[in-house]
Design brief:
There is one protein chain. By secondary structure, the chain is mainly alpha-helical. It is built from nine helices and two strands. Helix 4 (about 100-125) packs parallel to helix 8 and helix 4 (about 100-125) runs antiparallel to helix 9 (about 215-235).
């Protein structure tokens, strides 16, 4: 058989190579126990350890910088800003904190799709144990809200309980990818403790819809909550 007709091993495409290095570097950071603020190994150390060229290392580090998980400091090195692991290989999403209004509105577009679907799926799949868990979180949210006028962490716990009731682990995995962006909704944005306070009653009606296994009602109540959130973002950021 002529040489040119034989099957041959071909070099990996650059994109594949970069993805391999991305995975290897994330794995190294996780196993090394590096924490935010720690310095990464020098480029030449990573080149030698991973047997790749400088351009590939720089491509991966640029990718990490764009995601906001590392920072290059001139004359000092590259430092870890956020935790990285192989379980979150695509890295947590990070938005521009200097433009909070735009970041919240962008995140809300994604949150609306995820939470509407989660409420509908939970209403169809919830078990009695799920209802107990959701209502326990709701009761605590209502208790804290009535005592303090705000209940950010408890509100988040309520929504997480709905995610659990979907029995689809991808909902929680998506939240992990977007946790930092999502949690801004529960951290008193614009320094307003009354942010989205008007959505408070709709959490009980959302629970009622899930308990009744009424997917359309769950969708409607979720949209009411998020409509209030959107209105307050626009009003409080003026």
């Amino acid at each position: 058989m002529p040489l040119q007709d034989r099957a041959m091993l071909l070099p990996l495409p650059p994109a594949d190579r970069a993805q391999q290095v991305t995975s290897a570097l994330a794995d190294f950071i996780q196993r090394s126990g590096l924490n935010p603020g720690d310095r990464l190994p020098a480029e030449r150390e990573m080149m030698a350890a991973l047997a790749v060229g400088r351009s590939t290392i720089r491509e991966v580090l640029s990718h990490f910088q764009a995601l906001g998980v590392v920072e290059a400091r001139k004359g000092s090195g590259t430092y870890l800003l956020r935790a990285i692991s192989t379980a979150t290989i695509h890295m947590p999403l990070a938005l521009d904190t200097e433009h909070l209004r735009d970041a919240l509105l962008q995140t809300l577009e994604v949150r609306r799709g995820i939470e509407v679907e989660a409420g509908m799926v939970a209403s169809r799949r919830r078990t009695e144990a799920d209802l107990v868990n959701i209502e326990t979180k709701l009761n605590e949210m209502e208790r804290v809200h009535l005592a303090k006028g705000t209940s950010g962490p408890e509100d988040l716990a309520f929504h997480l309980a709905i995610y659990d009731a979907t029995h689809n682990p991808l909902f929680k995995q998506l939240l992990e990818q977007m946790r930092e962006a999502f949690e801004r909704f529960w951290d008193e944005p614009f320094d307003r403790s009354d942010f989205a306070r008007r959505s408070f009653p709709f959490h009980r009606t959302l629970f009622d819809a899930i308990a009744a296994q009424d997917a359309e009602a769950a969708r409607a109540e979720t949209l009411k909550i998020l409509a209030v959130v959107e209105e307050d973002i626009k009003e409080m950021s003026k």
